[in-house]
DNA sequence: CTTAAGTGATACACACCTGTCACAGTTAGC
DNA sequence: GCTAACTGTGACAGGTGTGTATCACTTAAG
């Protein structure tokens, strides 16, 4: 994750790398083409320092996606900890993802041309998501079979809900959280596959 | 739409502006930060010519969004021509949008900070979309009330379906078109608002 | 306290994109 | 065919982001 992988970092330095990653997360979410200058500024540091921690812009993005993938992995583990019903697992997962406010896609799409076209997600994360969808499928909550379609729909609706203002009609009306809104929308989107015949 | 608004253009020149817009549509869909050089190259023209037709990059993007909004408007008119059932109207609209393969969002999001935060869409287009959703709502097909949420979900799923490979499981399995997939997914996503209680 | 590590400030080279211009060659339109 | 319009080529200036390096200063860690 850091430029000098061999030696150990001083405490403040390691703290700053975290600040840079956090700042990059926030700034790049608003503007994916933001300069390292602006990222450093948001982190309260200089551009030079950003370059000391991350050799190149590319390296920073890689570290960022790695961090996000790690968060997704732990979120998957936490939500599947006990043998809860699939829909509960799915709701938990969504809540956790919203809590870590990852600005979800931004960086992933930046690196999407990198790895195996899973939308920037590590294969492990993609597989973990697919397992959750498989649970929902077995429980009869959804009927869509394509792993790619399920994943993309989920990520897309996560992003849209995230950008939704807090006072949106669909939220205040029923007093629901964004996570619940996303859960219902995703289940609905992936669930009505064979019901009607229009 | 063109640099010199006062005089009429020669036939080939006008033809080239269309090529530039088409090329921009395609190239910017793949890379929103693509240079005018690459856009011109994709159009079989030089960067200088691009600048002759469009005074600045900004002007090109504005013309592009204007063109897309115009297409959306005509698509809305066509789909609502006769008094067809709401679900049929919605399906028609989606099919038309897919046919003109607009690479839907790309440019809209680029200009989204411009106008009134409707995701790059003209107020007229946003209103037209909302009318379609109102029809679906009255017919009991959907229950979501937020215009923003409905629109964003629709646009997001349009984009995801567009990027879906032709041989995706959810498509070949039932022999359905992408348009039908989107229609069902959107109706499902916006329709299950008050049914269950997790 | 002392040392090594980290940072800020500054400067530099490099590359890319934008916008404009001038000039020569080509093409549409009458 | 003639003329005006259009394009290609090449060049230029200005701006911005990247990556590197140096020096003085501050701070964590032993």
List its traits.
globular, disordered C terminus, homodimer, 198 residues, DNA-binding, mainly alpha
Structure description:
Two copies of one chain form a homodimer. With 198 residues, the first copy, chain A, is mostly helical. Chain A contains ten helices and no strands. The longest helix of chain A is centred in the middle third of the chain and has 23 residues, at 57-79. The radius of gyration of chain A is 19 Å and the shape is globular. Chain A binds a DNA duplex (30 and 30 nucleotides) through α1 and α3.
Topology:
Two copies of one chain form a homodimer.
Chain A: H1 11-30, H2 36-42, H3 47-53, H4 57-79, H5 86-99, H6 106-110, H7 123-138, H8 147-163, H9 169-172, H10 178-191
Chain A binds a DNA duplex (30 and 30 nucleotides) through residues 9-13, 16, 35-37, 45-49, 51-52, 55-57.
What is shown here, in short?
The structure is a homodimer of 198-residue chains. Chain A is mainly α and 198 residues long.
Most extensive chain interface and residues per partner: A-B, 41 and 40 residues
Uncertain runs of chain A are 193-198
Helix content of chain A: 55-70%
Strand content of chain A: under 5%
3D shape of chain A: globular
Structural class by sheet pairing and helices of chain A: mainly alpha
| Major sheet description of chain A | none
Q: What is the quaternary state of this protein?
A: homodimer
Integer average pLDDT of chain A: 87
Total helical elements of chain A: 10
């Amino acid at each position: 994750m850091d430029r000098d992988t061999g030696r150990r970092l001083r405490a403040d330095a390691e703290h700053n790398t975290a600040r840079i990653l956090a700042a990059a997360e926030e700034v790049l979410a608003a503007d994916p083409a933001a300069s390292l200058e602006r990222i450093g500024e948001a982190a309260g540091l200089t551009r030079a320092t950003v370059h000391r921690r991350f050799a190149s812009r590319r390296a920073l993005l890689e570290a960022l996606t790695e961090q996000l993938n790690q968060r997704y992995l732990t979120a998957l583990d936490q939500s599947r900890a006990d043998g809860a019903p699939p829909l509960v697992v799915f709701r938990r997962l969504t809540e956790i993802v919203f809590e870590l406010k990852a600005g979800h896609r931004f960086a992933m799409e930046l690196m999407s041309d990198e790895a195996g076209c899973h939308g920037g997600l590590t294969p492990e994360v993609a597989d973990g998501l697919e397992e959750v969808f498989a649970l929902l499928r077995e429980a009869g909550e959804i009927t869509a079979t394509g792993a790619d379609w399920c994943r993309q729909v989920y990520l897309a609706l996560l992003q849209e809900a995230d950008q939704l203002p807090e006072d949106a009609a669909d939220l205040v009306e029923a007093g629901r959280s964004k996570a619940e809104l996303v859960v219902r929308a995703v289940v609905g989107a992936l669930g009505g596959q064979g019901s009607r015949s229009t």
